[in-house]
Write a sequence for this structure.
């Protein structure tokens, strides 16, 4: 199993508990341990109830043969979670998003978003509307853009696919080629012919790229297929593909970038994080 020590952030809500079936599935190997962590206000009644809650959840997991323990801390959530990650050699963080929007999101902020931005660990993010009964990783969707950045998590995802005997679907979303609007109509080939030629070239490049990766993965015993889609809305296309193949997990690399590159890549990740009803496994890449 790729992950040995998994931190599951719980706050006593049913939404946060939706991370547990997935974490439990990932902890199927005997050497994997789950650490259930909760941060709350330093009030005796609250702390006593929260620790009792964590002990009950840990006991339920232990009854299933899963190594687990619960730790409760009082104080500011973000620094305490990060300290707990460092002190316990955590290699995966599991968090749930309550899906706040509008004014509530502006005022409260997104705890899960802050955690994602504050750690270099892979993060398993589960959304509020997720059906926890569908935790098995039957089909993992991995969006790629042809870059080494997007491929940074390919090795890790292939290990997960092998461990869970999952089907891995690779997806490339081809953005329609841009042609200068001032191109003269008299120039040959025509605008439409030139557009189609460029698009066909992009499709051929994506086809060769996906066939190469798919072949390598299949040689390693991983059931793999690939898809190509043409769209100028990458997040929406990824989500519609996930719906079409009934993906149980979307996994992708997030980019630590700045300026215009941060805007481009960040917008894709943000669109997925904001709108996906399916669990997402986010891998940080600082290249």
């Amino acid at each position: 199993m790729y992950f040995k020590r998994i931190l599951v952030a719980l706050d006593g809500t049913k939404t946060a508990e939706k991370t547990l079936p997935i974490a439990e599935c990932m902890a199927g190997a005997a050497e994997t341990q789950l650490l259930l962590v909760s941060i709350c206000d330093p009030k005796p009644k609250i702390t006593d109830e929260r620790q009792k809650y964590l002990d009950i959840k840990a006991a339920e997991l232990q009854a299933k043969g899963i190594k687990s323990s619960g730790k409760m801390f009082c104080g500011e959530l973000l620094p305490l979670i990060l300290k707990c990650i460092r002190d316990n050699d955590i290699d995966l963080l599991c968090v749930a998003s309550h899906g706040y929007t509008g004014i509530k999101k502006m005022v409260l902020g997104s705890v899960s978003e802050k955690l994602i931005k504050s750690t270099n660990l892979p993060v398993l993010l589960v959304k509020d509307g997720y059906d926890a009964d569908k935790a098995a990783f039957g089909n993992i969707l991995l969006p790629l853009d042809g870059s080494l950045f997007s491929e940074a998590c390919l090795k890790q995802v292939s290990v997960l696919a092998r461990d869970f005997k999952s089907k891995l679907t690779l997806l490339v979303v081809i953005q329609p080629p841009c042609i200068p609007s001032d191109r003269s109509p008299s120039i040959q080939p025509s605008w439409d012919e030139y557009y189609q030629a460029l698009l066909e070239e992009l499709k051929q490049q994506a086809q060769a790229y996906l066939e190469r990766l798919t072949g390598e993965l299949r040689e390693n015993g991983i059931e793999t297929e690939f898809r190509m889609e043409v769209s100028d809305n990458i997040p929406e296309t990824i989500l519609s593909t996930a719906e079409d193949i009934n993906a149980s997990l979307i996994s992708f690399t997030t980019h630590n970038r700045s300026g215009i590159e941060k805007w481009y890549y960040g917008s894709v990740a943000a669109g997925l994080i904001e709108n996906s009803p399916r669990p997402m496994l986010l891998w940080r890449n600082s290249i």
